[in-house]
Amino acid sequence: MENGDAAGISAATNPMVTPLLTDLYQFTMAYAYWKAGKHLERAVFDLYFRKNPFGGEYTVFAGLEECIRLIANFKFTGEEISFLRSVMPTSEDGFFDYLRSIDCSDVEVYAIPEGSVVFPKVPLMIVEGPVAVVQLLETPFVNLVNYASLVTTNASRHRFVAGKSKTLLEFGLRRAQGPDGGMSASKYCYIGGFDATSNAAAGRLFGIPLRGTHSHAFVSSFMSPDQIVVKGLRSHDGSSTCDDFVALVRNWLSKLQRTESFQGIFGETNQSELAAFISYASAFPNNFLALVDTYDVMRSGVPNFCAVALALNDLGYKASGIRLDSGDLAYLSIEARKFFCVIEKAFGVAGFGTMAITASNDLNEETLDALNKQGHEVDAFGIGTYLVTCYTQAALGCVFKLVEINNQPRIKLSEDVTKVSIPCKKRCYRLYGREGYPLVDIMARENESPPKVGERTLCRHPFIESKRAYVVPQHVEELLKCYWPGNSSKTREELPSLNKIRARCMQQLEQMRPDHMRRLNPTPYKVSVSARLYDFIHYLWLNEAPVGELQ
């Protein structure tokens, strides 16, 4: 197998993702394997999770691309070998020579495509190769998949609550867990259904659309419009020049103050805010979006914005809208919309009533749901802290378990049945019903015949004998594809672009039955094993479990 560069796969996005990004015990195990002469034995590991996050019944798989980039460029440097010598001083020199020689040319990776909807127990990735090498991949793979899948799922849940028609903006960089967390959040929130990010570095690196306006500090830094001179602002078509934009804005503000519909709503507005809006609009006449809650939304912010937007309209520009960052967002958005609609009707400004309203201020799933129930006029939501920190759940809880070595299936037992692993190398399928929805995922042993369309397939719960059902699938999808063939002759799946992963995520979520997706009391999706695999799990379980003795 060619190395990563030859295969055209660049290194991981984060330069910290190197072979050394793993737990020390992976190296101590690798040394023990090497000392015992077991390091080249062929092992198969499953990477999966045990429970869906956020009280839901689905998860979105993400992070695969970064895993493939890691193994495509997996090679220890001389400096890394020297460091490992210093922390493992009793290890033999031959072990470090071995580490210096290894790469992932003999590793095979099978995975569900990134952006897919996935469920507990089903392997997201199957990794096969020399046991010592694959063991070294455990920690970085779990690290790269865990947060990526968690935050992508979180983003998809926000998209589901907000609805398809709303614009979702990821504003989480300043609240993320460090620069790495901020960059990952921007990338995976985009996959999960967000439309844009405020993170300029993510925009450059990943090609994610960027959005942003100004802060309260910008507004409060100004004192009065008299301090600003905006001359020579050219019209949108370039045919004329406005010699005094400030005067044009003041004229419109005066008209608004005299408008009968606005009597008693506002009088004198905050002039420093007006100055800030004029300054920002003259800098960005094609994309003027104002933060209107620095002083008072309806008595100052919205009227000041409208005066500037109307002046821009005279020059052929169309303002973008406003942002609300505090207060009763439902009420304020409705009142702002009424204000815009009055202006459209009173002054004949086409489209003014549909001016975009963006809301931010520590939004999360619950507040979006509450806004929907109250009724609101918000067009776009800027969401940060609760989104990128996955505030309601710290981790997905992915695990990496040995299921076969030297063609011998292995099982991990536990008194907690949810922690019992499903042994042997597997193939996994998704079975679809007549309405086009997925019905059940089924795992089978590698050498079993796959389920067939129109034929009854017995699907069994892995551990509960009475839970079983026949399924007659109308469509069968094999879930795992080869993303790194190692020395095998299998064809390697190409890594899709970020936009293709995002499109897959949206398509997969659309395909799910609504009761699996709802926020409250969602229906659990069924994950099963074939009859043969069920029998084998319990045969192996009885063989491996020690028999108690009563005295």
Describe how the helices and strands are arranged.
Elements: H1 24-36, E1 42-48, E2 59-60, H2 64-72, H3 78-87, H4 93-101, E3 108-111, E4 117-118, E5 125-130, H5 131-162, E6 167-170, H6 178-191, E7 196-197, H7 200-206, H8 216-220, E8 233-234, E9 241-242, H9 245-258, H10 271-283, E10 289-291, H11 297-314, E11 321-324, H12 329-347, E12 356-359, H13 365-374, E13 380-383, H14 385-388, E14 399-405, E15 408-409, E16 426-432, E17 438-445, E18 457-460, E19 468-471, E20 475-478, E21 481-484, H15 498-511, H16 514-517, E22 526-529, H17 531-544
Parallel strand pairs: 6-7, 6-13, 10-11, 11-12, 12-13, 17-22
Antiparallel strand pairs: 1-5, 1-14, 2-4, 3-5, 3-21, 8-9, 14-15, 16-17, 16-20, 18-19
Helix pairs in contact: 1-5, 2-5, 5-6, 5-13, 9-11, 10-11, 11-12
Outline the structure in words:
This protein is an alpha/beta fold and 551 residues long. It has two domains: 4-156 and 393-544, nicotinate phosphoribosyltransferase (Alpha-Beta Barrel); 213-378, TIM Barrel, CATH 3.20.20. Helix content is 38%, strand content 16%. The protein contains 17 helices and 22 strands. It has helices spanning 24-36, 64-72, 78-87, 93-101, 131-162, 178-191, 200-206, 216-220, 245-258, 271-283, 297-314, 329-347, 365-374, 385-388, 498-511, 514-517, 531-544; strands spanning 42-48, 59-60, 108-111, 117-118, 125-130, 167-170, 196-197, 233-234, 241-242, 289-291, 321-324, 356-359, 380-383, 399-405, 408-409, 426-432, 438-445, 457-460, 468-471, 475-478, 481-484, 526-529. The chain has a six-stranded antiparallel β-sheet with strand order 15-14-1-5-3-21. A six-stranded parallel β-sheet has the order 7-6-13-12-11-10. Strands 20-16-17-22 form a four-stranded mixed β-sheet. Helix 11 (297-314) links the parallel strand 10 and strand 11. Helix 5 crosses helix 6 and helix 11 (297-314) packs parallel to helix 12. It is elongated, with a radius of gyration of 29 Å. The model is unreliable at 1-6 (pLDDT under 50). This is Nicotinate phosphoribosyltransferase. It comes from Dioscorea zingiberensis.
